[in-house]
Amino acid sequence: MSKTKRKKILIIYTGGTIGMMKTRRGYTPQKEKFHQLLDAIPELKAEEMPDWEVVDMDPLLDSSNITVREWNAIGTVIAENHDRYDGFVVLHGTDTMAYTASALSFTLRNNSKPVILTGSQIPLCEIRNDARDNLITAMLVAANDWVHEVCLYFSGKLLRGNRSIKYSADDLIAFESPNYLPLAEAGIEIRYNSALLLPPCKGEFSLQILQEVPIGVIKVFPGIQFELFDSIMTERLKGIVIETFGAGNIPGSADALLPIIRKASDNGTIIIVCSQCPHGTVALGAYETSAALRDAGAVSGYDITTEAAVAKLYYLFSRGLNEEDIRARMERSLRGEITV
Ligand code: ASP
Fold this sequence. Notes:
four-stranded parallel beta sheet; Rossmann fold; 2 domains; eight-stranded mixed beta sheet; binds aspartic acid; 8 helices; alpha/beta; 340 residues
């Protein structure tokens, strides 16, 4: 009986708690020890598992230190190996995993292979850990034929990468996808929700390298003194994500914020309105308090996460699109990141 060919997975180890060890200055990522621990997991050599190889990023990082440069480096490893592997598992710290997953969902243009980010809340070196299960299931997901997109796998749930947020600093169920149901749930079996998955892309795969575009995020709060932000709203600022109340509302909009937003918009800054509520969508104009934002030239982020909005701004500016194109694409779903 002929055996079906095993899938080939490339594991890209970027750092994060999953491979950390305790030192006198707290947890830090380790290379050799992590490889020894991986080699000691018998399940990774089981017949049911795909073939795999690991490549380490240099330096290994706590993901709080991830920047656009590391997103480009991870994207480059995937692009250079895209034809040689069936899927990719990116081992990453949890703190910025949702940002990296969002960024890769845009920069890996026309990617149809599973790219699964995972990590853990407890390092693999600890007796009680969530690293082993997250890694094994992420590898099985990366070797399946259903997924054609960038996802985040954590604690039994496969989430669309650009829909995910880190939701808990200490629970093992650390991620949520508040506006999109999980793409798969790993119980006794891994059950894919095929109606939610993206179809394979038709175009040719390519990598978009990101530029360090000057962008910002402002979170609105009661009593916010908008004048303080006037000085950052210069022509240098290419884009700003405003985390508003509820469905896109801001306090006392007409007096304080409006002239500042208008000035930014006149300067060519793209203003994206997101909600502080993880669940639900921005509806500019539903209340008087949000109509002013729209009138001043802001763009609705609908139900986009701040993580995806930031990544999408980097991506669209790095493509060298003009202001009008960027505004139009911000209000459109590129890789399933918003419900319009
Ligand atoms: N600070 C760590 C990181 O993001 C947290 C984690 O991995 O869970 O790299």
